[in-house]
Design a protein that fits this description.
The chain is about 20% helix and about 30% strand. It has about 700 residues and is an alpha+beta fold. β7 and β8 (about 115-120) form a beta hairpin. α9 (about 500-510) packs parallel to α10 and α10 packs parallel to α11 (about 560-580). The mean pLDDT is about 95. The chain binds alpha-D-galactopyranose. Alpha-D-galactopyranose binds near residues 331, 440, 475, 477 and 478.
């Protein structure tokens, strides 16, 4: 037997192999004691055999092989150049163990194949990074390559993966484990609203705040495939890789993206904190990490395509007065882009709308103390555009394809397309002091192709190298391209096109399982929401935006005095708190009332926190049920203050103490009895500040 052990202070991952065969993960969970006998552990975990079974149970290896009588999905599906299936049988070559990294190398001599698996642990964040690579001496067609395969926990009844739609991202689906496969295979060619590549597997009884939970995120923007399979012997496997068949050309080297895997013994929040911190501290690369996140103003919902300089200047002036620090000029500034039927790819300033170029607007924005950002949708082209007329062959997919928002995608695998985009985008970024690009992607691809994603990554990398001060926001009709792959290259996500605070509250709550405060864009929208028709109070809209990286997107001229006052105050509060909130953990609370969606943002040192308790619906019971907090020190005492107690409605007639004054309570009480909040209307948010005394 061979054994390898990885530990990060919280979890252990033990791999073992029988002789030269590929290893399997024989233990993944709370860290094992020093000196655990790995041979004994492996022997103890061997399964019995009974009637109807093979004489020995095939390993559930990190890349299950069809040649080993493995009864489930293999981790690798390949064909040779002639199309004949290759059924590899890998044998051990070498293992490299260096600090927190383990690299395992296996070879199949007969087929000239090399398989490499890499695992890396992180003692700070407790996220395991795992990737696999396959190399071949001759060109092969790859159908499927799983990142190293993890076992699914046995004491788990269901798994949660993520679906969604435009204006409704991060919807969690619970699927009971049962024999067979739960498969997600994303054919859209982008991460997609529909298929956020994450999985949460809670063990029985786990909630947001307690219990064992396993979490996964696949860092790839071209669409993923997930296979969560229960075998007839009861074992479970979890595979993640690029969507099947998206390597469309034969090749001699293929690699998976990084699979981020986490074990938590503190419920879903244990996974959430690990992912939030890992993304923030290990993946994101801000040009100026010390600069606090600026309050955004984005003009999309104020003017759409109707750009007019005096109006934009007036809007900018008002946005700055409300507290905005970055002005983002959205779609409509280039070509003859008067609506969404034309001009994508004609990235030249529209002289009709900007006779003197962008300079005067940027100067105005700068004079107001704001920085300037601009919208691009680089990978797209309208058939009605100068560039399409010149280069119809640059578009990806057949001529008679169905358009999406009247547009096609460009073929990003072509170097001349990337060069063209680099030059056009680079011309704008060189000519002007731009510190931010909103990078959009508003349609699915005509067919999924990994080369497209690699092309996009290469273009972003090249632009970032040339313009290292520019931050990039990943947008795809809202949250259609959010994953740890794109976030290694960008700095913010436009979580959703929904500026409806009620929808946002839900989307943000689930997205927080993966995304920290600093990366999650959230804007105060118009009084009457453009995507839902809902009319929501400014207090609710402002506080929901203040839960994340705050911004405004309404026409500020619509705000009455009271609305402007509330928004200015909440924005000031946000600015006073953004520094510590930028390093805080977002903890989802277990709310006794399903109408309440609540979270606690807790400072790194545990010394302070803020609770946002959003009332998403009317409750069935009459008065609020206490809301339990989490991760406090039981014996410490906390000063608790209802920050916006002035928002209590006249229908709240009683005297819960928080309505009139702060209280000091122990962590024990707050975590076990909880906070008793005043009665409120639905679509309102209570904001509670806590400080250790
Ligand atoms: C997408 C984005 C919006 C906006 C428009 C512009 O829908 O998600 O925020 O930028 O494109 O066309």
């Amino acid at each position: 037997m061979r054994h390898w052990s990885l530990a990060d202070g919280r979890q252990s991952l033990i791999l073992a192999s029988d002789g030269a065969r590929l290893p399997q993960i024989v233990y993944w969970g709370p860290q094992l004691p020093e000196g655990e006998d790995l041979a004994a552990l492996t022997a103890a975990g061997a399964l019995d055999v009974t009637g109807g079974m093979l004489d020995r149970t095939p390993d559930l290896s990190i890349c299950p092989e069809a040649t080993q009588s493995f009864p489930g999905q293999p981790g690798l599906m390949l064909r040779d150049a002639e199309g004949t299936s290759i059924l590899p049988a890998f044998r051990f070559v070498e293992a490299e163990e260096e600090g927190d990294r383990l690299v395992l190398l296996y070879r199949d001599q007969r087929h000239g194949l090399t398989y490499r698996a890499t695992f890396a642990t992180c003692g700070d964040t407790h996220v395991i990074e795992a990737r696999s690579t396959i190399e071949s001496a001759a060109p092969v067609h790859l159908h499927w390559l799983a990142a190293p395969v993890f076992p699914g926990p046995q004491l788990s009844d269901e798994m949660h993966d993520f679906a969604g739609r435009w204006c409704g991202e991060f919807q969690m689906n619970a699927t009971p484990w049962s024999p067979g496969i739960r498969c997600r295979d994303n054919r859209t060619g982008r991460t997609g609203h529909e298929h956020f590549p994450g999985l949460i597997v809670p063990c029985r009884g786990a909630t947001n705040t307690q219990g064992q939970t396993f979490g996964f995120q696949y860092g790839w923007s071209g669409g993923h495939r997930m296979v969560a399979e229960e075998l007839s012997d009861g074992r479970r496997q979890i595979q993640f890789g690029h969507a099947a068949g998206t390597e469309t050309s034969p090749g001699m080297r293929f690699e998976s993206a990084t699979l981020y895997a986490v074990f938590s013994d503190e419920g879903i929040n244990g996974c959430a904190v690990a992912f939030q911190r890992h993304l923030r501290d290990r993946i994101l690369r801000f040009p100026r990490p010390d600069r606090p996140r600026p309050v955004h103003y984005n003009c999309w919902e104020a003017v759409y395509f109707d750009h007019n300089m005096p109006e934009l200047k007036e809007i900018a002036t008002r946005a700055a007065a409300l507290g905005a620090e970055r002005f983002v000029l959205d779609d409509g500034w280039f070509g003859n882009r008067d609506d969404d039927t034309r001009a994508l790819s004609d990235w030249v300033v529209d002289a009709r709308k900007y006779p003197d170029g962008l300079g005067p607007l940027i100067e105005h924005v700068h004079a107001l103390g704001m920085t300037f950002g601009i919208w691009f949708e680089p990978e797209m082209i309208n058939p009605d555009s100068e560039v399409h007329r010149r280069h119809p062959d640059w578009a990806l997919g057949p001529d008679d394809q169905i358009l999406g928002r009247n547009q096609k995608a460009l073929d990003m695998a072509r170097a001349e397309v990337r060069d063209f985009l680099f030059d056009r985008i680079g011309a704008i970024l060189s000519a002007h002091p731009v510190d931010y690009v909103k990078w959009d992607h508003n349609r699915v691809l005509p067919m999924a192709d990994a080369a497209q994603t690699r092309g996009t990554y290469a273009l972003i990398d090249r632009l970032r190298h040339a313009f290292p001060q520019v931050e990039i926001e990943s947008c795809a009709s809202g949250g259609g391209r959010i994953d740890f792959g794109i976030l290694g290259r960008t700095h913010r996500v436009w979580l959703s096109d929904s500026n409806d605070a009620l929808e946002r509250l839900k989307i943000q709550h689930n997205a927080a399982i993966f995304l920290p405060f600093v990366v999650t864009g959230s804007h105060v929208g118009p009084r009457e929401c453009h995507t839902s028709g809902r009319v929501l109070d400014i207090r609710f809209r402002a506080w929901v935006a203040a839960q994340r990286h705050m911004g405004f997107e309404m026409d500020p001229r619509e705000l009455d005095e009271e609305e402007a006052r509330v928004l200015t105050e909440v924005t000031e509060w946000w600015k006073r708190n953004r520094e510590w909130m930028g390093r805080a953990d977002i903890l989802r609370l277990d709310s006794a009332d399903p109408a309440v969606i609540a979270e606690q943002q807790q400072a790194e040192d545990g010394g302070r926190f803020v609770v946002f308790a959003g009332k998403a619906a009317t409750s069935t019971q009459t008065v609020p049920r206490p809301l339990r907090l989490t991760r406090l020190s039981p014996h410490a005492r906390y000063r608790i203050e209802l920050l916006n107690r002035g928002d209590a409605s006249g229908l709240s007639r009683g005297e819960p103490v928080l309505k009139s004054q702060p209280v000091v309570l122990s962590g024990q009480y707050l975590m076990n009895h909880g906070l008793t909040l005043p009665w409120s209307f639905p679509e309102r948010m209570w904001v509670v500040e806590g400080e250790r005394v």
